[in-house]
Amino acid sequence: MTADRIDGKSFSAVLRGRVSAAVGRLAAERGVAPGLAVVLVGEDPASQVYVRNKGIQTRDAGMNSWEHRLPASTAQAELMALIGRLNADPAVHGILVQLPLPGHMDAGAVIDAIDPAKDVDGFHVLNVGRLGTGQKAMVPCTPLGCLLLLKEQLGDLSGLDAVVVGRSNIVGKPMAQLLLAENCTVTVAHSRTRDLAEHCRRADILVAAVGRPGMIRGDWIKPGATVIDVGINRIEEAGRARLVGDVDFEGAVQVAGAITPVPGGVGPMTIACLLANTLTACCRAQGWPEPDFAKTGG
């Protein structure tokens, strides 16, 4: 018996459709379209592709999309001034500064210059604090996508043992907070955890976000567990590059109950959740009811 494949590509298309339908209703009933501004500093090839895809999907969802491309030599003060203008623009509901930034810039200071209500990446310290204390927050897109996949697969998560391998501010820590809010019993582990394999073996839900290809082996997984592999690692084999996750997929698929493949699992959910966050930010800014994308089957 092999694990069910959790099809993030298919589910992300469903989520984008739900966002697009909600945006259409806003336009028809209230005459407002959510707006997302993306800022790219420098010419990192991967970032350029990602920003271009964000723009395409934002417009496809019926939202307004603005791209601000700045040279790598841009002074931090100039970037801060741009963020200030976007903060003050009522047509802009979401602001995303593409990371990484050039080395001369303080990424933390740049992120914290964004209005927390427009911080659709969910990285601002106020959103981090609100999430950690159970308040309404903008939630980082990748952990939100993982949660939506888990709820679609399992329904109610209450009482399940969850292990998150990885403690980054972008994925691991917010993922743990989201699982706690769903009444899971949560362990945050990492590359220096003693007896990491034993921690993983007791998990009903295992989220791997450690950034090491194939680190989580098949015999580390509890039979029937649901495995969410956040890792995207490029490796070379026989002179060809391919993407693999943090989980040894071939070993895990023989043990787990369900698992996300790489590629095609968590990855497609990130931009879909960015669109959902932008819609949410728009609704909150206007004091309108916001959609609940985390509702199972909703």
TrEMBL record:
| Assembly | Homodimer.
EC number(s) reported in the record = 1.5.1.5, 3.5.4.9
User: Where, by residue number, does NADP(+) bind?
Assistant: G166, R167, S168, I232
What is the name of the protein in this document?
Answer: Bifunctional protein FolD
Q: Which superkingdom does the taxonomy of this entry point to?
A: Bacteria
Q: What does this protein do?
A: Catalyzes the oxidation of 5,10-methylenetetrahydrofolate to 5,10-methenyltetrahydrofolate and then the hydrolysis of 5,10-methenyltetrahydrofolate to 10-formyltetrahydrofolate.
For this record, an example GO cellular component is:
cytosol
Instruction: Supply one GO molecular-function term.
Output: methylenetetrahydrofolate dehydrogenase (NADP+) activity
Q: Which keywords, in A-to-Z order, does the entry hold? A: Amino-acid biosynthesis, Histidine biosynthesis, Hydrolase, Methionine biosynthesis, Multifunctional enzyme, NADP, One-carbon metabolism, Oxidoreductase, Purine biosynthesis
Q: Which reaction does it catalyse?
A: (6R)-5,10-methylene-5,6,7,8-tetrahydrofolate + NADP(+) = (6R)-5,10-methenyltetrahydrofolate + NADPH; (6R)-5,10-methenyltetrahydrofolate + H2O = (6R)-10-formyltetrahydrofolate + H(+)
Query: Pathway, per Swiss-Prot/TrEMBL?
Result: One-carbon metabolism; tetrahydrofolate interconversion
Q: Which family would the database say this protein is a member of?
A: Belongs to the tetrahydrofolate dehydrogenase/cyclohydrolase family.
Whichever gene encodes this chain, its name is folD
**What GO terms in the biological process aspect are recorded for it?**
L-histidine biosynthetic process; methionine biosynthetic process; purine nucleotide biosynthetic process; tetrahydrofolate interconversion
Give the Tetrahydrofolate dehydrogenase/cyclohydrolase NAD(P)-binding domain ranges: 140-284
Q: Which residues form the Tetrahydrofolate dehydrogenase/cyclohydrolase catalytic domain?
A: 6-121
